[in-house]
## 1
Amino acid sequence: MNLLLPESGLLFWMTIIFAIVFFVLAKFGFPVITGMVEKRSRRINESLEAARVAEEAIENLNRTREQVLTETRTEQDRLIKEAAAERDLFMQQAREQAREEADRILMEAREKIRQEKEDALRDIRREVAVVSMAVAEKVVRKELSSAKGQQELLDRLVEEMTEKSDTAAS
Amino acid sequence: MRVLKYILAVALAFAAMSPYAFGSGFSSSQESESLQELAASEQAQEAEVNVGELLFGHIGDSYGWHITDWGGKHVTIPLPCIVYSRTSGWHCFMSTKVEHGHEYEGFFIAIEGKYKDKIVERGSDGEYIRPFDISVTKNVCSLIFTGLLLIALVLGAARWYRRHDASQEAPGGFAGLVEMMVMMVNDDLIRPSVGEKEYRKYAPYLLTAFFFIFISNLLGIVPFFPGGANVTGNIAVTMVLALCTFVAVNLFGNRHYWKEILWPDVPLFLKFPIPIMQTIELFGLIAKPFSLMVRLFANIMAGHAMILGLVSVIFVTVKLGPVINGSMTAITMLFGVFMDCLELLVAFIQAYVFTMLSAVFIGMSRQEHEI
C-alpha cells in the first residue's frame, strides 16, 4: 500500500519547509513572545513584591508613628508633672523667702522702734534732769535766801552724807 | 493537569474506536441495501470502487491541485513537476502537461501497477521506471501554505511586542490569542515535560512542531481550497517530524541517557555476553519516534477517510431511490457534523500528544541521574 511508503519528494520538501519555518520562528517568533511574556511576568512579580514591601513599610511607619505618639504622650505627662512639681517647689520657696523677708523686716522695724524708744527715753531723761536741775536750783535758791534755811540744808546734807557713808561702811 | 489527562485518554480512546465502529456500520448498511435491490447492487458495486478511488485520491497526493468540477470541466491548479531521470537528467514542467494520460518529454502518470498515479518514464524494455521525483505536489503546496500561514501568524503576533512595551501592557485580540496559545503550550506542556532547567532550549522546536501540526490538521479539515490536503495524514510529513524529535532526543542526550541504553543497571548476565538489554533499549530508541510518526499519520488519515467515506455515502445511495438517498443523506450529514467536530478535537489532541511525547522523550534524554 503506497500510503505507508514515504514519498522521497515529499520528504525532501517537508524537510526544507519545516527547517525554514523552524529557523524563522525560532529566531524571530517564539522567543520574542515567550521572552516578552516572561519579562512581563517577572515585572508583575517584581511589582507585587514591591507592593508587599511598600505595604510593610507603611505598616512599620504606622507602628513607629503610634510608638512615637505614645512616647510623646508619656513624655508630655511627665513634663507636665515635673513642671507642676517644680512650680509647687518654687511657690514654696518663694513663700518661705517672703516669710523670711517679712520676718527680717519686722525684726528690723522692731529694733528700730526699740532704739527710737530708747533714744526718746534718753532724751526725756535728759529733759527731766535739766528740768529737775532747774527746779532744784530754784528750790535751793529759795531755801538759801534765809539763814535758817541754809543751816537746815547743811544739816540735812551732812546727815545724808553720813548715812551714805554708814551704809557704804556697813 | 490530571483532569486534562483523563479527558485526553477518553478522547483518544474514542478517536481510536470511532473509525472501526462507524466503518462497520457503514458497510453493513451497504450490504442490506444491496440485498434489497439486485439491479442497483451492481451499480452500487461500481460506485463503491469509485468511492475507494475517490477516497485514496483525496487522501493521497496529486500533481495538480484539483479544486472542483465546474460545468463538466476540471478546475485544477497546475503545479510544477520536477523530476530527475537517470537517462535524460532534470526535467521541469507543469502538471497540466501530463494530465489525462498525456505524455510529455517521455514522462506520464502511470494508471496502474506499482507506481500508480505517479510520474514514470518507460525503460528500454517497456517497464515503468520511476524518476527521482521532487515535484511540488498538492501536499507540498499545502505545506508551503501552512508554513507561510504559521510564520505570518507568529511573526504578526511577535510584531506587536516590538511595537509595545510588553512589560507595561498585555496584548489583546489577535496577538493575545497567539500569546495565550503559545504560553499554554510553553508553560503547561513543554516546561513540565522537558524540565525546568533546560526547556528554554527546546521550546522553539516543540512550539514549531505543535503549531505546524495543529495548523496542518485544521487546514486538513477545511474541505475547500486552500485546505483539504491530507498533509499530516501523510507518512512522509510525520516521518520528518518524528525524525526531528529523534535528532533532538539523541543528538543532545546526556551521558546518563546513553549509559541507560548501553550499560543499564541490570544484572550482568542480561547485558554482558549477549546484549539483551541493549537490544531492547535500541528498539525502544527507534520505537519512540516510530510511534510518533504512525500515531499522527494514522489518526489524521483515518479522520479524513471517515469524513470522505461518510460524504461518499450520499453519492453511493443516489441510485437507490430518493427515499433511501434522502434518509441516508440526513444520517450522513449528522454523522458528518459529528465527525468534523471530532476531527477538530483530534486536530488539537494529536498536535498536543505529539508535542507532549516529544517533550517527554527530550526530558528523559536530559535527565540527570537521581538516587
Note: Confidence is low (pLDDT under 50) at residues 14-44 of chain B.
## 2
Amino acid sequence: MIVSAAVIVFPGSNCDRDAVSALSKHSTKRVHRVWHRDTDLPKVDLVILPGGFSYGDYLRSGAIAARSPIMTAVQSHAKRGGLLVGICNGFQILTETHLLPGALMRNAGLKFLCKSTPLRIENADTPFTRAYAGLDQTSIPIAHHDGNYFADEDTLDRLEGGGQIVFRYVNNPNGSSRDIAGITNKAGNVLGMMPHPERAIDPLTGETGGLAFFKSLAGVMA
Amino acid sequence: MKAIVHIQPRSGVLDPQGQAVAGALKHMGFDEVLSARQGKIIELEFGDGDEQDVRQRVQKMCEQLLANTVIEDFSISIEA
C-alpha cells in the first residue's frame, strides 16, 4: 500500500501549506502539493482540498475551483474509493462538484467568523475520526464567511439516518441546518468540514483539537 | 446577441443578504418594503447565431456553472 497524500493548490488557497505540514508531522511524510491546472494526480491514498479563497470566491465560493482541470482526477480518485477531504473552502468545492450534497451559504449573521469552536463528535467510526473515539466533544477553529450548511429536509434526514453527519456545532455559529459542521458522502470516503483541523495541532498556536483528525488518517495510512 | 441570466436564491432558502437589505430600507423609512431577495445578473455576449441554440447552450451553462440549483433558480432572456 502506498502511504501518501496530495494537497491540491488553487489560486487563492491559503491553508495548503498548513495542511501539508500537519500531514507530514502526524499522518505521512509523503505529501505532494498538486497545482489545480495539472490533470493527473500522483498515486495517493488521500487527497485534501484545503481552505482559502479559491478564485477570490468569485461567482460562488468554490464554484470555479470545482471546474478546475485537476478536479476530474480528484473525482475519479473519490469514485475509486480513495479518501478525499475538503476543509472549509474545500468543503464548498466538494458541494459544488456534487461529491457531497447540499450547499454552503452566507453565514446567517452575515459576518466572517474566525474563532475556536466547540464541536460534537457525531461519528467516530470513520477513517477521519477514529482517533476521537471515546470523546464527545473537541474544539477546532472556524474561519469562514460562507459556512451556513443548507440541504432540503429529505437530504438532511438521509444524512442523519446514514451516520453521515460527522461533526456538529455545539453553539451553531452560522445558521447551518441541524448544526452541521462536517459530513461524509454515503460511501464514507469523502468528508467535508468547515472547521480547520490543520490549525489546531500545536499548543503553541492555541489548541490541539485537530490532532486526532490527522492521527486518524495516520492510522488509515499506516 | 446577448443573453441575460438572472439568478435568485430559491424560495424557501434563507437569504440573509436580502433580509439585511429589506431591514436597511425599512430603517430608512421605506416602510412599504415587505421583503427583499438578492440575486445576481450575468450578461453573456455572443456573435450571430440561432436564438434557440444560444438559449439551449446558456441553459446548460446555468446548470453546470452559473447557478447552483441546490439553492438558486435562474431565468434566461435573450436580446438581439
Note: Chain B has one domain: 2-79.
## 3
Amino acid sequence: MTTPLLSVRDLSKDFVRGGGFLGRAKSAVRAVNCVSFDVFAGETLGLVGESGCGKTTTGRAVLRLIEPTGGQVLFDGQDVLALSARDLRRLRRQMQIVFQDPFSSLNPRMTVGQIVREGLTIHRLAEGAAADTRVMQLLDEVGLRAEYAGRYPHEFSGGQRQRIGIARALAVEPKFLVCDEPVSALDVSVQAQVVNLLQDLQRDRGLAYLFIAHDLSVVEHIAHRVAVMYLGRIVEMAKAEDLYREPLMPYTQALLSAVPVPNPDAQRQRIVLTGDVPSPANPPSGCVFHPRCHHPQKDEACARIVPPLEEKAPGHVVACIKQLPTTVTWEAQQAVGGTKQPSRYLPVIPMRG
Amino acid sequence: MADPLLAVDNLRTWFYTDAGIARAVDGVSFALAAGETVGLVGESGCGKSVTALSLMRLVRQPGRIEPGSHVTFEGRELIGLDDEEMRKLRGNRIAMIFQEPMTALNPVFTIGDQVAEVARIHQGSSRKEAWDRAVEMLELVGIPAAAERAHEFPHQLSGGMRQRVVIAMALMMNPALVIADEPTTALDVTIQAQILELLRGLQQKFGTSILMITHDLGVVAETCSRVIVMYGGEIVEETDVRTIFRAAHHPYTEGLLGAMPRVGEKRERLTTIPGTVPPPTAWPTGCRFRDRCPYAWERCEREHPPLYQVGENHVSRCHLAEEPERRVPHAPAVEAVA
C-alpha cells in the first residue's frame, strides 16, 4: 500500500470554558477525541455526523486553523503540529479549505479577481500579467466567466460564490482540500453543479479531499471512504459502498435509516432514535452511543467499556463491543456486568423499494 | 374536489422594490382538501414561502397581495378580511410551523406560558386551564416530563425539542390547516425523522390538513399525497406523489430529481440544471425556465405556457405537452448572468 498523503493519529481538541473573570469553575469540553484516519492522494474521505459531533473541528484542527490539544498530523511526511508559523504558512499552499457559507467566507470589499489572486501573491507564485492570466484560467476552470474578475461577491448567487471559494483554494495548487459542508447552503440543482465540479477537479488534478458533510446522500455520491463521527469520536469507517450497504455500528444504521427516501413506495425499516445527542461536556461513560443504542445485545458492559475502533470486515472498522467479531472478549464483558453475548446485528435497511 | 378546505385562486404577491417590481408569487391557484397533506416544492426564490405568508396574510411592506387574488378558507374569503378577524383565524383555524424554532419562540417566556397563551387568546381560558392544556399538548408532542419542562425557557431545549414546542403551539386549537414551512430543514437527520413521524401521527389523530413547504423531495415522498412544484413564482407542475417520482413531466421537476443524490443509488455523475434562478424582478418572457431548459425551442420564448393537463390529476406548465416529440435534450441557451 502507498503511504497516505495525510495521516492523522489520536487527534484531540479540548475547548476550555469557564474560568473567566467571574470565576466559574474551569471545565474542558472534548470536541474531538482521539480521532485517527488517513487520506490518500486523489482520494475523498467523507466525514459525516450530526451537529456537534466534532467533524468541523476535526477539519480545522488538521489544518491548524484551530490548535489541536493533542495527537499527530503528518502531511506528505511533515509533522504539521511541530511546524513553526512560517513553515506552516508554506505548507498551507498544499492544504486549503472551502468553507460552508459562501456569504461570509468571501471578503465583500475585494473583487473576485483580488480574492482569487491573493494566494498567488502571498505565496509568490505569480505577479502582474502572469497572475492575471492565472486568475482567468482559474475562473474558467470553476465555470465562471473571466469578466467576473472585476465584480464583487455580493453580485453572485450562492453557487457562484462557492465556485469563487473553490477557485481561491485552487490558486495555490494544493494537493489536499478540506471541504467543510461546501454544498449544504446551496439549492439542489446548484449543489449538483458544485459536486460535479469538485469531482472533475479531483480527476484532473489528483486532489485529495476531506469532505465534511451532514448530508449522507451527497457523501455517498462523492466519497471513496467514509468515517462516521459521534460525540467527538470516529465510530465507523469503511469504503463508501461497504458502509452504505452494510453499516455495522448501530448509530450508522440509525443515521442511514433516518434519511428521507425520495420514493413514495420505498419499503424500509426505520430505526427512530429516542432522545437527543448528549452534551459533549458530559459524555456518557463507556460507549458514548449506548444510552440511545438499539442493539439488542446492549447491556451494562456497554456503559463500562470504551469500545476500540476495530476491524469487523476487511477495511471496515467499527467501535462496538456487541458487534462480532470483537477483541473485547465475552469474559471481559461479563467481568464488568455484561449479560448479553455479542452477536452480528444487521437490521434490514433497504434503501430502495 | 367537492368543497375544498382551502382554495387559492390567482394569488399574486408582488414586492415594490427599488430594483423594480418583484413578482414573487405570480398567479398561483391550487386547492387543499380536508385531511390532505400537500407538498409545495421548489428552490430558493421560487415563491413557496411567500405563498405561505400570503395565505396567513403576513406579507409585509413593500409586498402587496394584488387585486384579483382570492384565498377561500372554510368557505370564507381571506383576502380583504379585516385584521381583527384574521387574527382570530391565525393560530386557531390556520396555524404555521416555521423553519427556525429558536426565532419562532419568545426567549423570555417559559415554553408552558407560550403554549398556554394560545388557549388564553383564542378561548379565553383561565390561566390554570390554559396551563394544564399546554402541559397536555407538550406531552402529546413527546416532550419528556412535560409538567416540569413546561417551566423551562426555549434556550434550555435542543433544536428538536423546540420544534416540538412550536408544533404543540400550532396544534393547541386543533386547527383545520397547518402550514409547515421547512419544518425539519434546521434539524439533524435523526431528529428530522422523529419530527416527521410526530407530524404524521398527529395528522392521523386530528385529521389536520398540512401544506408542507420544503425543498427536500425526500420529505415530500415520506409525508405528502400530492405535490405542487413551483418555479419563478408560478406552479409548474402538480400531481400525486407517485406520479411526480415516476413520471414527472416538467423539465424543471425532471432536473430537480436528477440533481438529487440518493442514498443507495450511486451514479457516476449528477445531472445538473445549468445556471441559476432569474431574479423575480425580471422573469424571462415566455417560459420562465427556458434559459435553463435542455429542450427549449423558439415557442418557449414566444409563448408563456399555460398549465396543460398531461394526465389524470396531472398538470404541467410546459409546451412539451403539445409537442412531446421535442423532448430531445440539447444544450440550454446560455448560462444565466449573475
Note: The first helix of chain B runs from residue 48 to 55.
## 4
Amino acid sequence: MEQVKCECGHVNPYGTAFCESCGKPIEETTKPLLDMRYEGSARRSQTYNKTIIDKIWNFFSSVKVGVWLIVITLIASAIGTIFPQEMYLPPNVTPAQYYEDQYGWAGKLYYELGFNNLYGSWWYMLLLASIGVSLVICSLDRVIPLYRALNNQGVVRHETFLRRQRLFSITNVNDERLFETVKERLAKRRYHIREENGNILAEKGRFSRWGPYVNHIGLIIFLIGAMLRFVPGMYVDKVLWIREGETKEIPGTNGKYFLKNEKFIFETYEKGKENEVFNAAIDRVGSGMVAKTYQTNAVLYKRVGPVIPGDEPKLQKVKEYKIRVNDPLKYDHYALYQVDFKLNELSKMSFQLIDKKTGTSFGTVTVDLRNPTSSYNLGKGYRVELLSYFPDFYFDNDGNPATKTKIPNNPAFVFKMYAPDKPKGEVSFVAIRQTIEPFGNNKYKMAFAGIETRNVSALTVRRDFTLWILGVGGTIFMIGVIQGMYWNHRRIWLKQVNGEVWLAAHTNKNWFGLKNEIKSIIEGTGLAMPVDQAEMKKKAAQGGNEHGATQ
Amino acid sequence: MMKKQRLVVRTVILLLLLSAVGYTIYSSIFAEKTDIKVGATAPDFVLTDLNGKTHRLSDYRGKGVFLNFWGTWCKPCEKEMPYINRQYAVYKKQGVEVLAVNVGEPKLSVQKFVDRFGLTFPVVIDREDQVMNAYEINPLPTTFLIDKDGKIKQIITGTMTEEMVKQYMESIKP
C-alpha cells in the first residue's frame, strides 16, 4: 500500500484526508471547512477492502451498522413483551395450543415466529453478540488512527488547514510581546503549549477524546460478565418452595446444603398495635391491609458424607437465620432471599364417621394430605379405607375424577366405610362441600371435622460470581461517559504569516465555551476575534449578514 | 508486509470474537448449563420402590437403564406408561431395565396408578425432590436413556409412541 508524503515531509498512511502533521489536505477539496472527525485520519476500514476478512471487518466497523443492530434488538425486545414468554405460561399447557387459544391468530403467528422464547433464542443472542463485535471493531478501527493522528500532530500547520477551521481570523499586528501575553493567558487556562518557529499550538482536554473508547471497554467487560453466567458454577438462580416443618435440599447446591423451614411469619400493620404515627396511614388503607413482615425462620444444614440424591442425608447444622425481604441468609457465596409465600396450605383434614340418621360418631379419621395412609381402624368393628386420593381434584375430559397437581389445593377422597352392620363396606366420594354416593344410599357418612394448615415460603437461591465483573464494567462505562461528557478537547493555533497573525481554533464540542475562552484570552491584545465560519455560512444561507441580522 | 500483518491481526481478533460469541450461544442454547447432558455420567441416586426395595442407579451398570420421570396427574405420562410396560416385557431379557421415578406423590396415589396399569417395572418415589433436582427435571414426562456404562445417551421430553419406546430401548441394549 503506498503511503503519502506531504510537502512538510511527514509520511501519512494511505487514506488520510489531511496531513497528520501540518494539516494540509492530501487531496484538494473545494469545501470551505475541513471535516475534523477522527482528525482526518485514515480509518482502516474505509481504505482496505480486499479479503473476506476485510469485508467482515468493514461491515462491523460501520457505526451505521452498529446503530441498526441496536435498533433491531430494541424492536425485537419490545415485541417479546407483547405476549407472555413461554417460561411464564401456566404449567402443563402446550405452548402451541395456548398461544392460539388465548390470543387468536396473532398468538399463533407469535408462536410460529419464535417470539414465545425470544430472549433465549439463537438469533436474539446473535444480535446481542453482533452488537458486542461491532463495539470492539468500531472502537479499534477508530481509536488507533485517532491516537496516531493526535500524537503526530505538528505545531506548524499549513495555511489551508488553519483557513479551513471553523473558528478563524487574520490580524495585522506587529507586537513583539503579543505572543508572550497570549501564552501566559493560555497557560493560566491550563493549556499545554508547544512552540515551533514562532507558531503556537495550545491544547487541553485531549483525554476527553478517549471517553467513548473507555466507555466501550466498560461495555465489553460488562458483556464478558454476562457471558460468564453461562459457565457452569458461575451463576445460580433457583427457587425453593418449602413448607413449615419441612427440610429440603437447596436446589443449585448439588445436594450439599439443606434448609429447614421452622416457621413462616406474615405480619401486617394493625390498628392499636403500632406506633401512633402510623395510625393515620392505617386508617386510610384499613387495618391489616399493609404488609409489615415476610419472614422465614430457617435452619441451614450441610450434608456430611457422600452426596447421593435420594439417600437419607446426614445433616450438620450450619446456622439459624431469620430470612426477611432484602435480608437474605448468606453462606458460602449462596444467598437465600425471601421472594414469595403461600398462607394456609392444607396439610391435614379430619372426618368423623357418623350414622347419617342418628348423627352418632364412631371416631375421627385424620388424613395427612401429603402422604395419606390407606387404612384407619376406629375400633369396635368400625374401619375406614382410603381408596383414592386426589390432592387437586377436578373431573377430566372423560368425566373421571383426577388431580391437576400433587399440591393439596382442593383435596377429594374416595372412602370405603366398614361397620359391624355393613361388613362389605359403603363407598363415598368426599370433596370439599360435596359428597357423592356412587352406589346408592349409604347409611354412614364421612362428616367434615376440621383442617390443619401450614404456610409455605418461597426463597430465591442465588449465587453470582459475575457480579463484580458487571460492577467493574459498569464503573468503567460511567468513567468513560463522564470523561467524554464533562471535558472538551480544545485546540488553538497561532501562526505568523508575513506580518499577519493567523488564529484558528477547534473543539470537539461546546463551541460557545471555546469562543468565550478565546475572547478573554485575546482581550486587549489587538487580535481579531475569530469568525465562526460554520455559523456564518448558515446565516448567509438564510439570507442574513454575519451577525445574523437580515437586511 | 503491512498488508500481511493487518490481515493476521484482523483474523486473530475476529477469531477471538467469534469463539467468544460461539461459546456463549452454544452454551446457552445447545448445551445444558450443568452436568446433565448427553454423554455425561448420569448422577447416581438411591430411591425406594413401592415394595420397600431400594434401587441404586450405579447397581445397574452393565445394563441399559430407561429412566422415566412421571406424575399421576400428567396425561402424557399416563399415555406412555402402557407402552413402556409392554416393551419392558420384551427388553428385560435383553438387559434393559426400567426405573420409573414418581415426582414425590403420595404412595397411595402411586400404588393405585401402578395397579391400574399393572406396571411390572420398579416404581420409586422421589419424596424429597432430591433426584428431581439432580436431574433438573422440568417438564413431565422426561426420559433419560442410560447406557451400560452409566452414561446418558439421550434425553427425551414429551410423550413417546410405542414405536419410539421400542427404538429407545433397542438403542441402550448392552
Note: Chain B is about 40% helix and 20% strand.
